[in-house]
Write a structure and sequence with these properties.
heterodimer, A: about 600 residues, five-stranded antiparallel sheet, 12 helices, about 20% strand, B: alpha/beta, five-stranded mixed sheet, 10 helices
């Protein structure tokens, strides 16, 4: 019940409820009062009609008495006391004009003839003041008044019959509380009560006047003053009509318009409005339900999407249906998801790469380990040969101590020395290579002519050269080329290069060792190019750069020839001197290794002096 | 132009003038007259009859039964309307056609306690011997007797029936000369009133006027038809000699119409 949907629903319903409730309340009130106003207007119109009819009656009564008083036969009959003659004269009036009584008084105030009851005469009724005035000759015009007599209320007009003096008074009356009132009630649709003096008359003839306290006194009554009687068994609207006569306001004619129908109409109206309100609320509920659902659905989807993402599922996508802020939010959410997916994929890529590299490195390590093992074996093997030679020579020296000459002995010692040098050289090489793993190779630089290491080399390698019958051709491009280098290491470099060349040269082959100056413009200091060429098998182009790698063996161990440390050592030495080493295949077969070493430009040996 | 207009006028007038001439030639005009109580019925029928026979000219006059007898005798009218018994001479002279009977009924004011009067009491009242309703079973109230104007067939009929033929005196009553409705209203409004008229029982009762029994009999359609009610009178059409064809045709239609109307509205 705490969801956004319900909140939206509740708030929208509240928003609708309040104005609608107020509107309906207001409408109900307004319409009710409007109906009441209309009812009052209608009732007033009816009252006006009743008033008009009363006025008409008055006119008629006044006219009639005047007419009767002027009839010559009437005067004559009165003068002659001819009651039957008078009646015969007035008889046609009875059937023609609807009046309730025509009465003729003699000058004494006794009833001479009542046309509607001709057998009654001689009575002396209580005469109204205006009638008395007429009899006494105080008034000489028609008098109009309201008169109560025998439990009936009459509208009465009177006129004197003039002969010699007043010979009589003619009165014509309408009983208010009889047929006339029935007619008025039928016409106006109301109930009529007449108040005259302290008595009341209504349309039911049987019922005599009954005192009713609720009704107002005649005084101060205004025409059309409406008064609601909402309670009681028959709720009604009372409109009062004063009975104006020549004597002033003599009574009140109260019209009670039953309001039961009005009440029913108002109730029906309220019920209708109530149902309209109910319908409206139902509609509003439906619409706001649908709308709220529409609004909150993308939010719900977003929430679900977020939960999924939190659970680690990046594959989902929220479809933004709306163009509003929620749609934008959904779109950003989707972008965020996209980003997440991408970075996750990247991370995965890195992980795989790392794994691959790890495996690679493992393989490399294993290979290096293998090579190291092979090298250890080779080193041992390489050291074994010269050491065996030294041992043999020493044995021979001992066996033949007696009979050997000094010359022989000197030669043997020389052999021993060079063999020892060879071993020491090899060990030094290994040490240098080992050292190079930890940093710079410490050099002890000195100037010396290039001839010196070449000659030392040839001496050291004399036995191998002799053995294979290889001729070494030394070509110096310029005489007295001098170097500034570590003499011992350069010598070892040359030994390595030459022994390599010897190794790959065939019997009675030729090896060319050349040295020349090389100047490459101003930037680079002039260098010495040393070059060792053989006429051996040579190498393929792919193998050329690899030959300077540690543990690379030119024949991959096919023939038992060397540690494989030779050329890497050469590279190490050349680079330690700031030089360069490279190999190339010669077009006509064979193999050349070139080394660039620093030239002694101004040393005490005087390279350019000679 | 003026000549042409004159010619048109001449032709038009000749054409219009030709019609009454033609009607008179063929005897298509009839005159009907007599008892006023029958006139309304005659008028109602004739209005309808004229529509069906536009060529026929019908004139209707009042005059009463006596006038009708005299006029028919003299040939002044074609059909007479009579509502009294014919004397033997008249019976011999006229050809008659009966339209049934109606009755004179006695009416009084609504508050009268008396239920009815005998013929004797009625005579007493109209001769001025009885002046109070208390003498005939009513309340103590003076009797106001009403009669019709002299020369009215109804009054003649009434006197003849009450006092016998040849009554030559004058009844003691107030004369009222007015329409049936006015007479009913007057009787209703005047306390003590007694009057008579050709009125149907229901009609009188509907107006709020009380109908008195005569010799213990109310003028119901049955008592009138059977002749039990004393003041029953015939309704007759009278003709003399060989009537016109048109008059005969009209009379046949009217007799049929009157009998039909009499069935539903008896006593006219």
């Amino acid at each position: 019940m705490r969801s956004l949907l319900h909140k939206l629903l509740l708030s929208s319903l509240l928003i609708i409820f309040l104005p609608m409730g107020l509107a309906i309340l207001w409408t109900s009130k307004t319409l009710s009062s409007l109906l009441e106003v209309l009812f009052v207007e209608k009732s007033s119109a009816h009252t006006e009609q009743v008033k008009f009819l009363l006025g008409e009656k008055r006119e008629m009564a006044t006219g009639l008495v005047h007419w009767i008083a002027e009839m010559p036969g009437v005067r004559k009959a009165l003068e002659q006391n001819d009651r039957d003659g008078l009646f015969q004269q007035l008889l046609p009036v009875v059937g023609s004009i609807e009046v309730d009584f025509i009465e003729i008084l003699d000058p004494e105030g006794n009833i001479f003839l009542r046309v509607h009851d001709p057998s009654r005469y001689g009575d002396r009724p209580n005469l109204a003041s205006d009638v008395q005035d007429l009899l006494h000759g105080v008034r000489d015009f028609a008098a109009y008044g309201v008169e109560a007599r025998d439990g009936k209320a009459y509208l009465r007009a009177s006129e004197t019959v003039e002969g010699e003096g007043v010979v009589g008074v003619v009165s014509v009356g309408y009983a208010l509380n009889r047929d006339f009132i029935h007619k008025l009630e039928k016409l106006s649709g109301s109930k009529i009560v007449i108040t005259i003096g302290d008595r009341q008359y209504n349309a039911t003839q049987v019922e005599p006047a009954v005192e009713r306290k609720t009704l107002a006194r005649p005084e101060g009554v205004q025409s059309g003053a409406a008064q609601w009687h909402r309670d009681g068994p028959s709720p009604s609207l009372e409109i009062r009509l004063p009975l104006e006569t020549d004597r002033g306001t003599e009574g009140v004619l109260a019209l009670f318009f039953p309001t039961l129908e009005l009440r029913t109409a108002i109730t029906a109206l309220r019920v209708t409005l109530f149902f309209v309100a109910l319908l409206g609320i139902a509609l509003a509920f439906m619409i706001s339900w649908i709308l709220s659902k529409r609004f909150t659905r993308p939010l719900k989807e977003l929430a679900q999407g977020t939960e999924q993402v939190a659970a680690g599922n990046y594959a989902i996508e929220v479809r933004p249906k709306s163009q509003d802020e929620i749609g934008t939010l959904a779109a950003s959410f989707n972008r965020m998801l996209e980003e997440l997916r991408r970075s996750k994929a990247e991370a995965e890529g890195y992980r795989l790469e790392l794994e691959r590299k790890f495996v690679e490195r493992g393989q490399e390590l294993a290979e290096t380990e293998k090579k190291r093992a092979a090298m250890a074996h080779m080193v041992a093997h390489d050291l074994k040969n010269p050491l065996l030679g030294i041992k043999k020579t020493l044995e021979r020296l001992e066996q033949t101590r007696a009979e050997t000459t000094v010359e022989q002995r000197r030669r043997l010692l020389q052999e021993l020395l060079s063999a020892s040098d060879l071993v020491i050289g090899m060990v030094n090489e290994m040490l240098d290579l080992y050292r190079s793993d930890f940093g710079e190779l410490p050099l002890s630089l000195s100037p010396f002519p290039i001839d010196e290491p070449i000659q030392t080399c040839l001496r050291i390698l004399a036995p191998e050269l002799d053995e294979k019958g290889i001729k070494v051709v030394s070509r110096l491009g310029q005489p007295n080329i001098s170097l500034v280098a570590d003499k011992r290491r350069v010598t070892r470099l040359l030994v390595n290069l030459l022994s390599n060349a010897i190794k790959f040269s065939s019997e009675n082959g030729q090896i060319i060792v050349s040295a020349s100056l090389r100047e490459d413009g101003v930037k680079i200091a002039p260098q010495v190019l040393l070059r060792v060429e053989d006429e051996g098998a040579g190498l393929t182009e792919q193998d050329l750069p690899k030959i300077f790698d540690l543990f690379y063996s030119r024949d991959q161990g096919k023939t038992d020839t060397g540690t494989g440390l030779g050329l890497p050592y050469c590279k190490l030495v050349a680079e330690a001197h700031g030089g360069k080493i490279w190999a190339e295949s010669r077009g006509a077969g064979g193999f050349a290794v070139s080394v660039l070493l620093p030239l002694n430009t101004g040393g005490e040996s005087g390279a350019y002096a000679t | 132009m003026a000549g042409a207009l004159l010619a048109v006028l001449f032709i038009f007038s000749a054409f219009t003038a030709a019609r009454p001439l033609q009607a008179e030639d063929s005897g298509d005009k009839i005159i009907i007259a007599g008892a006023p109580s029958l006139i309304p019925l005659v008028e109602r029928f004739t209005a309808q009859y004229r529509k069906e026979h536009p060529a026929m000219e019908i004139e209707i006059r009042g005059g009463g039964s006596n006038y009708a007898a005299r006029a028919v005798r003299l040939g002044q009218i074609d059909v007479g309307l009579v509502t009294r018994n014919l004397d033997p001479a008249e019976q011999a002279e006229f050809r008659t056609r009966s339209l049934g009977y109606d009755a004179i009924i006695f009416l009084t004011y609504p508050g009268n306690l008396a239920l009815g009067l005998t013929l004797e009491q009625l005579r007493g009242i109209y001769l001025g011997k009885i002046t109070n309703w208390g003498q005939v079973g009513g309340e103590d109230k003076g009797v106001v007797a009403l009669t019709r104007e002299t020369g009215s067939a109804l009054r003649m009929n009434f006197l003849e029936r009450l006092f016998g033929p040849g009554f030559d005196g004058k009844e003691k009553a107030f004369t009222i000369r007015a329409s049936k409705e006015k007479i009913l209203r007057t009787i209703k409004r005047v306390e003590g009133a007694l009057g008579y008229g050709i009125v149907r029982l229901e009609e009188a009762q509907l107006q709020g006027v009380k109908v008195l029994q005569v010799d213990g009999r109310l003028p119901t359609p049955e008592t009138i038809h059977d002749g039990l009610y004393p003041f029953t009178r015939p309704r007759l059409l009278i003709l003399k000699g060989t009537p016109k064809e048109a008059a005969q045709k009209w009379m046949a239609g009217f007799a049929k119409f009157a009998n039909q109307a009499g069935d539903s509205k008896s006593g006219r």
